[in-house]
Amino acid sequence: MKNILFVASECTPFVKTGGLADVIGSLPHALANEEKLNVRVILPMYDEIAEEWKEKLSYVTSFSVEVGWRKQDADLFQIEHNGIVYYFISNSFYFTRKGIYGYYDDGERFVFFNQAVIASLKFLDFTPDILHAHDWQAGLSVALAKIYQPVEHMKTVFTIHNMKYQGVMPVEMFDEFFNLNREHLGGMEWNGMINCLKCGIFHADKVTTVSPTYAEELKHPYFSEGLHSVLNDRSSDFLGIINGVDTNEYHPLKDPHIDVNYRHSRAKKKQNKTDLQNQLGLPVSEDIPLYVMITRLVEQKGLHLIQHILEEFLQEDIQFVVLGTGETEFESYFSYIATKYPDKAVTQLTFDEAFSRKLYASADFFVMPSLFEPCGLSQLIALQYKTAPIVRETGGLKDTVEPYNEATGKGNGFSFTNYNAHDLLAVLRYSLFVYHTPEHWKQLSKNINKSKFGWQKSASDYKDLYEKVFEQQGVVQS
Asked: What are phi and psi of 138, to 5 degrees?
């Protein structure tokens, strides 16, 4: 039995800001189903975590953590949920705040968390064989595990979920936050800054990211946010494993949030659409194609392309619904569109999980023209709800969406290659043609019904990776 400890900054059902939480919430369950893997998760104890969870936590112990010259107290709690043990590290100074990111001292907060993770290992009723850290917030735990060697023969894996966010701090913070010899600075520093993502890449025995295409993209300067040379140095230990989705959590037959449950029935899916149209005050017709976007309103999601062509596309007999929050530029734009085209467009500047499920279940098309996308879960959820994704061929979108081909009858969605607004408009118009051509729409629907993106295959790939970690000789040292 191999013991795997996930280190992460968020995890469903406890706390979530994005797809990282979904992965950390579902992948351990999939890995636990693999023979000889015992997976547990360690997280910060945020004030944002609901009281219903806090009341179920069991106190384990308290200990002191050094953050440079500071001594900070840490309390360790645990809970078992759906067969997985979760540990929480509590500190009122760092984590009793509204929200979980976005503070001026985020660097210090996660230095504390990573130091506390390493310090907590001797108190756990569980000895990790592999410490598997996720994204910059956990990258330092890999470095500290190599430096301190808290568990004999423990190996490390680091997963990049989004290269854009790296957790950088002034290099002067090395002496301020770490009681380490300066010989260790080189493994943490990049371009005159401490870089937490680089720490994980440099020190881990194996490095992964969340799709094969994104792994290839990250080797090039355009996508790598300045770290391509570090990844290329680790190329023999770097690979992409596609994310999956929790097919029990996202299942239109079981989803309590939608009006009419279904498995493959297009008639029942149309019932969800007409119910939604009625709810939103749109013209009610099961024949009007419904396009939706559920997204953070940021440039990464391809919204500048949408801005250039949406009004032109709205001249067609369609409906377009946007759900999300983000940058003022995009919030203002989609509000303007909804006001100008009240019979065709709806914008809700919020995030509501229940309403998002209604959109997935009601939509004919899910629009996701990302500038870059490490993996993307939204297109996978859309496929689960039998909704055709329209994506740009980048990262995990390219790995999971095959463009529909009239000649072969293959494909589970629509895609375009160049980051160009009129290429997007062309594929939107093509999707409209397919929708109104019964034989093509029927074939596409059959293909979507066959799309499978649960965790089974990816969990098997992670299991193989863990086995290779133990076969590896001459691992990277700090």
From this structure: -115, 0
| CB-facing half-sphere around the CA of 352: CA atoms within 13 A | 12
Per-residue model confidence as pLDDT tens digits over 41-80 = 999 999 999 999 999 999 999 999 999 999 999 999 999 9
CATH of 2-244+456-471, one of 3.40.50.720, 2.60.200.30, 3.60.21.10, 3.40.50.2000: 3.40.50.2000
Domain ranges of the chain: 2-244+456-471, 266-450
| Helix intervals (H) in 121-203 | 136-148, 173-177, 196-203
Q: pLDDT tens digits, residue range 392-405?
A: 999 999 999 999 99
Contact status, residue 206 vs residue 468, Cβ threshold 8 Å: yes
Whether pTM exceeds 0.90: yes
Strand duo 290-294 + 365-368: pairing: parallel
The pair of structure tokens assigned to 441 is 């729409």
Q: Please say whether the beta carbons of 218 and 209 come within 8 A.
A: yes
CA neighbor of 415 nearest in space, from 115, 400, 375: 400
DSSP secondary structure code for residue 342 in this structure: T
DSSP state of 404: P
Q: What CATH number should be reported for the domain whose range is 266-450?
A: 3.40.50.2000
Nearest to 269 by CA among 386, 414, 413: 386
Distance of CA 329 to the CA centre of its chain: 24
